[in-house]
Design a protein that fits this description.
With 158 residues, the chain is α/β, with parallel strands linked by helices. It contains 5 helices and 5 strands, in the order αβαβαβαβαβ. The protein has a 5-stranded parallel β-sheet, sandwiched between helices. Helix 4 (110-120) packs parallel to helix 5 (135-148). The radius of gyration is 17 Å and the shape is globular. It holds the Pfam family SulA. It comes from Pseudomonas spirodelae. This is SOS-induced cell division inhibitor SulA.
Length: 158
């Protein structure tokens, strides 16, 4: 069976397009984080859709790399989904000695907790699971990340 393709544009296989990219790898071997550039980009977002188990399997290498960061600060996970347990962290090969799992208390929202963790500067990366993330909330995370010289990574699971 053949599928129609547009004749006026070339479609590259996924990995060929990725390998042809001139951007540096997501995590440099030197331990230098990609967001420590002159422009100071402090926010990233990853959107995963599908079965929860599949999403966690896709997320595991990203979190593993962040947990092995050469920065002396923490990888902080703010209000992770219930399926992201200590057992899952261990099975996924994450360095649990470099990870903080935090949950909001009382009236505090996950957004407020993420902002506080970012501002303190004791984490190189603060991972949140905020969905949907409004523009104003994103700006608040960016400002807090700049203040704490950290990176904010929001994971949107569908």
């Amino acid at each position: 069976m053949q599928f129609p393709q547009s004749l006026n544009r070339t479609q590259l296989p996924l990995f060929d397009a990725f390998l042809a990219s001139t951007t540096p790898p997501l995590f440099a071997e030197s331990g230098e984080l990609p967001w420590q550039d002159d422009e100071g980009e402090a926010f990233s977002e990853l959107s995963l859709r599908g079965a929860a188990g599949h999403c966690l399997n896709l997320l595991a290498p990203v979190l593993r790399q962040l947990s092995e960061n050469h920065d002396e600060r923490w990888l902080t996970l703010i209000a992770p989904p219930s399926s992201l347990t200590q057992a899952w962290l261990r099975e996924a090969g994450l360095n649990r000695e470099r990870i903080l799992l935090l949950h909001p208390r009382g009236e505090q929202s996950p957004l407020e907790l993420a902002q506080q963790a970012l501002k303190l500067g004791r984490s190189h990366t603060v991972v949140s699971w905020l969905h949907p993330l409004e523009r104003q909330a994103r700006q608040r995370l960016v400002q807090a990340a700049h203040q704490g010289k950290a990176q904010s990574l929001n994971i949107s699971l569908g």
